[in-house]
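Handout, section 4.2: multi-component inputs.
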Amino acid sequence: MKLGRSFLYLSAGLTALYMLLPVIVVVATSFGGTAAYEFPPKSLSLTWFAALFNTEIFTTSLLHVSLPLAVGVAVASTVVGLFAALGMARLRGRVADIVALLFSAPLIFPQVLLGVALFLFYARLNVALNIVSLALAHILIATPYVIRSVTAGLSGIDDRLAQAAQNLGASPIQAFCFVTLPLLKSGILSGAVFAFIVSFSDINLAIFLSAAGNTTLPMQIMAQMQYVSDPTIAAAASAQIVVVSLLVILAQRLSGKVRA
Amino acid sequence: MSRNIALELKSVVRNYGKGAVVGPIDLTVNKGEFISLLGPSGCGKTTMLRCIAGFESVDSGSVLVDGIDITKKPPHRRNIGLVFQSYALFPHLTARENVRFGLKMKNEMPKAEADGRVREVLKMVGLEHLADRYPGQLSGGQQQRVAIARSVVLNPPLLLLDEPLSNLDFKLRVQMRDELRSLQRRLGTTFIYVTHDQTEALAMSDRVVVLSQGKIAQVGTPREIYQAPANRFVADFIGAANLLKTDGIEPAPNGDVRATLESGHQLLCAGGVRTEGEHRWVAVRPESVRAFKSETSERAQNVFSVTVLSSTFCGDKFEVWVELDSTEKQSKPRLLMHLPPDQRPEHVTAVRIDPADAAIVGEEA
Amino acid sequence: MKGGRGSLLSVLPYALIAGALLVIPALGVLQLSFQDPATAGFTLANYARILDSYYLSIILRTVKLALLATMVELAIAFPLAYVLARAAPGPKRILTLCVMIPLMTSVVVKSLGWYILMTDDGLLSLVAQSLGVHDASLSGSTFAVVVALVEFGLPFMVLSLATAIEKIPRNLEEAALNLHASPVFVFWHVVLPLSRSGILSGFLLCFGVSASAYVIPAMLGGTKVKMAAQVVYEDVLVAFNWPGAAAVSMVLLIALSLILYISLLAGRTKNEARS
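Output:
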């Protein structure tokens, strides 16, 4: 039995390690001391991070494109997703099923093909490829995360609470604002965080919908990767990892705070 | 006249799907009364409560509070307090903020006055020292008091309580029972109390409304309900009752009746005939079936020789099942009787039922 | 309580977005796939082109690699999924992070990690050489692509399986053990069958994600290991053969939908056979 247990934990650990391996490699390489990719690094140095902050293409893509884009997408997706989730909670029957199907399609549809479809769609309509048209695409794929998070939050709220509020004189809208919304706060916030991450990490839509002026960070990393083997690229990739990891931890903290 | 009537339900009907119906219900509740809606689960008592509170619509009939028809009013415009069975306290607000909530919604009182009132009510329910705790940090009994305080602070003319004590353990329940009753007396508010626990209903109420399958089976004071059940359902539901099926009923001297049981035994009943109808039973409470010693030479009515079937010691009494001896092969009637703890069940050979304790009841009206 | 007009109004914004940015463009692709690149008239030539051996081999390779990756994921995800599902709250949080961080990190970043390992001087290449593997480099190899695909899909698989395992009441396993079943038996005959829904959804998710992968084969596959999404990319942005790209996209979509449909049917009939 003990042997079985250790085997179980060992394989679980190996699988976890496998999943984390590329991320670990990137971060480790970015601290390397030589001018080429070196894993494991034989010496440690912060040169590449310094280089990163001096490399305009990366700082622009991070600070002027990816971050603002992700913030905008997060805000928009949260608003749209909140309304969608609230509406869905009240729908019944055939309509509810159709809506649920439509709203989960962006998650199931292969992202690359979505990128192609949107590229061709924008081209036909003569819509310029800029940060807004990319943002719309990101909102499309990010909103389902907000919907899922808010829906999960809603299911944890007893309906009697809104009724109790109404019995105490609150109109339906007041009951929503003073009782339901505060209790939904963490669900909404964690959904917003996921929406941000989805936009920040996207590449499949960006490769089709980016224009010259707005290259996102993942796009820039991919472009540079194909030309040079420069640990600065690894540093840029590490920046991506750090932002995503911190946000994932934040989201976990937010969704863990459920009071009955 | 209507000055004294807190609530009136006029032919209120609420339909469910599949033909299930609550109503028509006609009920008048006076100001300051403590009324219990009592019945088994599914009898419609919670539905009635929710109709009064406005969370379920009434299909026909009207609900009047203080003489005003509120049937069409949305729940947040009815000035009726509701204490939910699960308390429904707002988890993100402290006890104090929970109690404050209704005042905040009304927004009619200046802040200082409202705060004072909240403090006063919290003191009334004994929770001022816990006012800044969150519901998650309070025990069940404390949560329940916050729920009551929250409704009471608004001074509603009518307070509805949906089985508020059912989530508490026994000892707490008994304690809260007394507290609720004295609170009601102090406030003078009309209480409508839903419960399936008859002990509670009988102990607390001025009047009890017994419900069965969506209709009122009987309305009366606890004593009336217990001692003079109007029909078989009430007789069976309230307290334990012996129900003996009768074959025929004839009048007897002094306005009494003589009932003949299927087994041929005859019972003199002076307790009255509660309902007409084809099927009737003699209703006798177990405590009214007494052991009889035939040493005394007095001639007594309703004496039967019995065989003891089983007995259970309950601390304060014996519960004894006896069978009336009969020459007939079948249908020997069984009775449950109480025996004082110092007597021996095995020694019981005969029982006597005082005619005054025997009544005739029929099916529910 | 009831879904009134307010609810419909509330879902309208996203419904419009989904309709305008997914449904309509997808229909556009469908329409374009039948369009002659030169004359803009109706044609089936775009689809016929796919029957050409170049495209056919790529599509077959795509399906093969996706299937291979998904099967490997299925096998190695189970232990972690089980441990995660049954973990106490503290360890569970950490394990969830171990799954969520790779899940949400950009695939480009992960491809860079594999690239670093697989270059001729990379760690894995050196390991391979020391194992006496042939001297062809790892970069640009099927091995590299599959390894990266498996890692990419693992978080999806782990989460799907873990969600399903969590729904299995713990005392079922305890009851089986109490009835003298060995842990392996319990896994094979209790846990596995009852996590069927997770296996199915994990399979579909991972297969879809692997079959439509672009970045991983582009970065790690070199010229030899091309997958369907790369063909689409090249047709769109290199050859400007948009109708051709549309046709390949449709084929890929149809293939994925077919697999989805078949798996759902398979899942359903098994359930019916049980009841």
